[in-house]
Design brief:
Blueprint: E1 8-9, E2 14-19, E3 22-27, H1 29-35, E4 38-42, E5 49-50, E6 55-61, E7 65-69, E8 74-79, H2 82-85, H3 89-92, E9 101-105, H4 117-125
Antiparallel strand pairs: 1-2, 2-3, 3-9, 4-6, 5-8, 6-7, 8-9
Length: about 130
């Protein structure tokens, strides 16, 4: 399972890449593998204010529907609109072209409460 060292992770299988002023969000390689072939992604709305743990979207696959949760509090400042036409990016490149949204973090210290790659690998190994 691929879990890049530079990212932070949630127990709900979202990844967070810290960026200047906020973070880019997606689902992990583990999550996309468990979902199977992704066929639809419901993206959050730019400008929406979210709290850590809020549902910000849904991913439909050939196996199930899964919610995406905000790993940080803040405002949605960008979404990956390419996923509307190419939801398979979540399967093919979950840490690159498969990003879901970007959040301008209102509580950057929340990043410290997330899992590092080693702890995430331990979580998914059980």
């Amino acid at each position: 399972m691929n879990a890049p060292e530079e990212l932070h992770y949630t127990p709900d299988h979202e990844w967070v890449r810290a960026e200047e002023g906020g973070a880019r969000i997606g689902i992990t390689d583990f999550a996309q593998d468990a979902l199977g072939d992704v066929v639809y992604v419901q993206l959050p709305t730019v400008g929406t204010t979210v709290a850590k743990g809020d549902t910000i979207g849904e991913i439909e696959s050939t196996k199930s529907v899964s919610e995406v949760y905000a790993p940080l509090s803040g405002e949605i400042v960008a979404v990956n609109s390419d996923l509307a036409a190419a939801p398979q990016h979540l399967n093919e490149d979950p840490y690159g072209e498969g990003w879901i949204c970007a959040i301008a973090a209102s509580a950057p210290d929340e990043l410290e409460s997330l899992l590092n790659a080693e702890k995430y690998r331990e979580l998914t190994a059980t």
